[in-house]
Specification:
The protein folds into two domains: 1-28 and 219-249, no CATH class; 33-217, Immunoglobulin-like (Sandwich). The protein has a seven-stranded mixed sheet. Strands 1-10-11-6-14 form a five-stranded antiparallel sheet, with no helix packed on it. The protein has a two-stranded antiparallel ribbon with strand order 7-8. It is globular and about 55 Å long. It contains four helices and 16 strands. The longest helix is centred in the first third of the chain and has 18 residues, at 8-25. The model is unreliable at 17-27 and 221-249 (pLDDT under 50). It is α+β, with helices and mostly antiparallel strands. 18% of the residues lie in helices and 35% in strands.
């Protein structure tokens, strides 16, 4: 059996890298994002809407109350990813929109889903302001669910790998949110993840939940954070093998 030999320098360096990555990706508490209002023209200056990275992802959600489903479905969700341009060059722009149908069983109060990287680490300058999340003040954008958008998010935050939108979409009015967006690196390809929805009434039970796009973490992040320090040591040993000072038998 061949025994893996690792020098103290390699051990300390690899641990330092893993700790740095862990701190960078997963802070101890929720991070509020800027939740900046922008115009459609400003949005077009940072997102290439004519060459989307993904197709539009559209789906429905449905809830029941005390085992009874009065209205089906209760609302819809839109998600898409566009390449960043201008001050967002090198990033992807992730956009989302939510709708509650008139007369549905529930109002929508929160949307959350997995988002492995913290958008606060990728601010984009828009008219001199650092923007980490935004909503587009346009009732009839050229993308998304369609005309009638009227509700801005109250808060957008990133909490230990989860992106959260706090908003109030009223079932009596059939509200539609404005387009909401954040940024992530281009080298993290989008993939689908399921949403978690907060409702009023809070005890409504989900029957159908939609999926939206999130960035996939880079392999090194998965190794470090998913498999722990031991996996990092093995990976670090392999990556550093080209720099060893002398041959070890």
């Amino acid at each position: 059996m061949k025994v893996l030999k690792v020098s103290l320098t390699e051990v300390l360096l690899t641990i330092a890298i893993c700790l740095l990555v862990s701190c960078y990706v997963t802070p101890a508490e929720a991070v509020p994002l800027s939740n900046t209002e922008i115009s459609w023209a400003q949005f077009e200056s940072i997102a290439d809407i004519n060459n989307p990275v993904t197709d539009a992802l559209e789906g429905f959600f449905d809830f029941e109350i005390a085992g009874v489903n009065f209205f089906f479905p209760d609302g819809s969700v839109y998600s898409q990813v566009f390449p960043g341009i201008g001050s967002a060059e090198g990033l992807n722009v992730y956009v989302y929109q939510f709708q509650v149908f008139p007369g549905s069983d529930v109002s929508l109060t929160e949307v959350s889903f997995e988002f492995p990287v913290n958008p606060a680490n990728f601010p984009v300058k828009i008219d001199g302001e650092d923007v980490t999340s935004f909503w587009v003040n346009e009732s009839d954008p050229g993308i998304g669910i369609g005309p009638g958008a009227s509700v801005a998010p109250d808060e957008v935050a990133w909490d230990n790998g989860v992106l959260k939108f706090t908003l109030n979409l009223n079932a009596l009015q059939g509200d539609i949110s404005f387009i909401i967006g954040v940024f992530a690196p281009k080298n993290m390809p989008p993939e689908e993840t399921i949403t978690k929805l907060g409702t009023d009434p809070a005890d409504a039970s989900p029957i159908i939940l939609s999926t939206v796009y999130m960035p996939t973490p880079e392999p090194s992040f998965v190794v470090c954070l998913g498999l722990g320090i031991f996996a990092c040591l093995i990976r670090g040993r392999r990556s550093l093998s080209g720099f060893k000072g002398r041959r070890r038998e």
